[in-house]
Amino acid sequence: SMRTSLLPSSIQSTASQTFHTLYQGHIMAEVDIIAPSGALGLVLGTIGPEGGPIVKDVKPESQLLGKVQAGDKIVAIDDVDVQTSKHSHVIQLLRNNSTSDERKITILRESQAQTTERWSSISRRTLAGFVGAAKSPRSRSTEPGSHEPDEPGHPTTKQEISCHNTIDDDGDVNDCTNQLSNGLHLDHIPTLPRFPVLETKDRNCWSEPSHTIFKIRGCNYLVDPKNKIQSGPYLFTARGADLILTNDKSGPRTGIAEKYSSILAGHARSIPTFVINFIFDWGILVNYYEIPAMYVSFLRARYEGSNQDLPAMDALQPHERAIIRFLVGSDNHRNATLKLIPKCPEGPWAVRQLVNGKPALIGKRLPAQYSYYPAEDGKAECFEADLDTRKTDRVGKKAISLCRKYMTTVTLDVGIVIEGTNTSELPEQMLGCVRIHRLDPKMSPTLPSL
User: What is the C-alpha separation between 93 and 394, in angstroms, rounded?
Assistant: First the structure.
């Protein structure tokens, strides 16, 4: 169980308050965690040269998931003061008592009000970036001299508490503590910030990796299936990503661009946007791409009967023809050509082996719903693809289960390309890609009711 209480008597002299105390200028809440016997699945570290143990990570299979959080400062183990101890000493104390029915871990945690303010600050900075992107649509692409993490690595010295328990495949991410959204009424759902992010140590954020990591169909692929080439630049620029949890009180998970003006921190429709919405049992993962003006013209002609002059199809590049046929075609054609290329550049071996860059026609593997929303009331055009992963095949379910299990340790590339099905549409070129960095559902907002 988890409860707030006074600091243990052996260390009361170090606290100036009973419930809230100050730690390095932050308002902290003191919490007792009652831990069961056995391995705990925590990764600990030491704060600075003078010591002080801290929780660096909580493994997905941890018995304390949702009770202990990354960033918690450990001040006592079974009322033994460890505030100035190295994390190795704390690990030894926990191991020595691992056969006990229960162990008390006393921690200091940043208060909920301050956590909310900190994440609101991140969201405000991210929001400012989106406003800039709206003024200069291409400004979010990688500039000369800047760097997106193509092969992320986060070396750190850490010692792990061994764990033997594994998470049940039916475990619910909603069991995680969601301090950010519970009880809050926000005008905009906080969106994932763009990599790099100092506050989260580059966790729970997104980036746009280099297009050169993808191999796609070349001109001669139909006669030589080995004819794979390196992709040219992305055709749609990535705008951002959201991880949003759902529960029984949440509204519909489809048609989100029309129903929820608060997604992407309220800027999803500030410019024409392609929304790709992956629907899971426990929430939604949404990727956003800017739609270039030429493709918007074809969408208007298809759905609004616009008389705007359109370029002749035979004057376009092969990949442009493929995308236009996808946007204006039937749902059957879309399902037959919308191709997902998932990659796992960082994560456990089992995930990297399964999520290995093999293309999949996503519309043939799971139910897909496509919607177009015209510009209105100051909102730009939007094209949305809702992909229901709850009804995918066995291989898809296994990949989703593994990614969910190791969500906090996985970096995932979600690449999208429209398949070239004839010589007039080859070579292919990547539509876009969003890289997701080690998502933490405990930091994610919850989809509100309508």
Answer: 43
pLDDT in tens, 342-381: 999 999 998 899 899 999 999 899 999 999 999 999 999 9
Q: How far is CA 383 from the centre of its chain?
A: 21
Cα–Cα distance, 116 to 121 (Å, whole number)? 8
Which candidate, 342, 338, 366, places its Cα nearest to that of 414?
342
Residue 71 banded pLDDT, cuts 50, 70, 90: confident
* Predicted local confidence at residue 146, as pLDDT: 38
Query: pLDDT confidence of 1, banded at 50, 70, 90?
Result: very low
Taking 80 as the threshold, does the pLDDT of residue 107 lie above it?
yes
Q: In the predicted model, is pLDDT for residue 163 greater than 90?
A: no
**CA separation, residue 77 to residues 26, 93, 170, 220 (Å):** 22, 7, 32, 65
3-state secondary structure the chain: CEEECCCCHHHHHHCCCCCEEEECCEEEEEEEEEEECCCCCEEEEECCCCCCEEEEEECCCCCCECCECCCCEEEEECCEECCCCCHHHHHHHHHHCCCCCEEEEEEEEECHHHHHHHHHHHHHHHHHHHHHHHHCCCCCCCCCCCCCCCCCCCCCCCEECCCCCCCCCCCCHHHCCCCCCCCCCCCCCCCCCECCCCCCCCCCEEECCCHHHCEEECCCCCCCCCCEEECCCCCCCEEEEEEEECCCCCCCCCCHHHHCCCHHHHCCCCCCEEEEEEECCCEEEEEEEECCHHHHHHHHHHHHCCCCCCCCHHHCCHHHHHHHHHHHCCHHHHHHHEEEEEEEEECCHHHHHHCECCCEEHHHHCCEEEEEECCECCECCEEEEEEEHHHCCHHHHHHHHHHHHCHHHCEEEEEEEECCCCHHHCCCCCCEEEEEECCCHHHCCECCCC
pTM for the full predicted model: 0.63
Please name every residue paired with 368 in a beta bridge, in sequence order, or none if there are none.
387
Rounded to whole angstroms, the Cα distance separating 362 from 252 reads 21
- What is the Cα–Cα distance from 211 to 231, expressed in whole angstroms? 6
Q: List, for residues 337-347, the tens digit of each pLDDT value.
A: 999 999 999 99
Amino acid, single-letter form, for residue 258: E
Q: What is the C-alpha to C-alpha distance for residues 74 and 327, in angstroms, rounded to an integer?
A: 54
Mean pLDDT, to the nearest integer, of 277-283? 94
Of 20, 441, 383, which Cα lies nearest the Cα of 243? 441
